[in-house]
Design a protein that fits this description.
Elements: H1 2-9, H2 11-38, H3 43-46, H4 60-69, H5 87-118, H6 126-146, H7 154-163, H8 168-188, H9 190-214
Helix pairs in contact: 1-2, 2-5, 2-6, 5-6, 5-7, 5-9, 6-9
């Protein structure tokens, strides 16, 4: 509710965050589709999901939820693991592809952000600072959030592929109750607290690398 009230009082902030959400969700889902295709499964490609067109990936309700309350989702990329040559390895790679792309996107945009501040005199430009800052923050948030090993997040697929044969009942439990556990952690503020800490640390590291590189020129 406080996020909705904030956007109501600061409508420009809504426009600033829109590009970040579109970019973050799109590159995440595209990476899943591309990785699956390269590993032998063309299901997502055949359904038009191996594209950087946001319309192909956006779930209207999930998009509005992410925009207004900070938690949402895109349309899941369909994957048929039976087409993989190495099921466990390839399932892990596809699951990590979206996360990795969000980290890469945040890292690359850090260079633009730092160059704008240090070289282009845009430190006082509200639109630039908010748009590019949001792109970095939201991509890091999506990457870190999806690493959580709770169903239905990508991290759960990685953990399940590694350990399901050893503790199958645990993963049956996670598949049945994981979304409720995740919702509870979100409502208690545990996720936002941890995300805020990690995003701050990782973005600081990205900015340091970007500043070192930008200052070379």
């Amino acid at each position: 509710m406080s996020r909705i009230l904030y956007f109501f009082q600061n409508p420009l902030q809504l426009l600033y965050v829109l590009p970040a959400i579109l970019i973050g969700l799109t590159v995440h889902e595209w990476a899943h589709a591309y990785a699956a295709y390269r590993l032998g499964d063309s299901t997502a490609r055949n359904l038009g999901r191996m594209t950087l067109n946001p319309i192909a990936h956006i779930d209207p309700i999930g998009f509005l939820m992410l925009l207004l309350i900070g938690f949402g989702w895109a349309r899941p990329v369909p994957v048929n693991p039976r087409n993989f040559k190495n099921y466990r390895r390839d399932d892990i790679l596809v699951s990590l592809a979206g996360i990795g792309m969000n980290f890469v996107t945040a890292f690359l945009f850090s260079f633009i952000y730092v160059a704008g501040v240090l070289k282009w005199g845009l430190a006082t430009n509200e639109a630039f600072m908010n748009i590019f800052g949001s792109i970095i923050t939201i991509n890091l948030a999506l990457a870190i959030f999806n690493l959580i090993p709770i169903y239905p997040l990508d991290g759960s697929h990685v953990l399940e592929s590694l350990l399901v044969r050893k503790i199958p009942r645990f993963f049956m439990f996670l598949r049945q109750y994981g979304q409720w556990i995740l919702l509870g952690l979100l409502l208690l503020g545990v996720v936002s607290t941890v995300l805020g800490y990690l995003i701050s640390g990782i973005s600081s590291g990205f900015f340091s690398v970007a500043a070192w590189f930008v200052n070379l020129f």
